[in-house]
Design brief:
Layout lengths: L2 H11 L5 H13 L5 H5 L6 H10 L3 H4 L3 H9 L1 H4 L1 H28 L1
Helix pairs in contact: 1-2, 4-8
Length: 111
């Protein structure tokens, strides 16, 4: 694939992944055919900063990260008396980055 396209993708999505994941993503994109790039480029990734804000204000970030079962349990237990809510705030950005990397790999496996 063209280096310009790879660099553009990395630049636009740098905040959505861990730095070590970006290196692996770059290698995989460079090996990919140009005609399949649009499938990856069209993938919408969750912004970790937005997930953090949702976690702080609403506590519903698990639904945005496709973790519906735990999201329902979390709400039914009144956010684990606040403890679960606090833990989720601390880990929200990390979970969003892991979710994005899994989503990237899933989309790549479809190609």
């Amino acid at each position: 694939m063209e280096k310009l396209k790879v660099d553009m993708f990395i630049g636009l999505n740098a905040e959505n992944f861990y730095p070590q994941d970006l290196m692996m993503i770059k290698e995989k994109l460079e090996q990919m055919d140009d005609d399949k790039f649009f499938l990856i480029q069209g993938t919408e990734f969750q912004k970790p900063s937005i997930i953090l804000i949702i976690a702080i204000l609403l506590g519903w970030e698990r639904f945005w990260l496709d973790d519906v079962g735990l999201g329902i349990v979390k709400i039914l237990t009144c956010y684990g008396c606040g403890i679960w809510w606090l833990i989720d705030i601390i880990s929200a950005k990390d979970r969003a980055k892991k979710y994005n990397f899994q989503k990237f790999n899933q989309r790549l496996s479809l190609i």
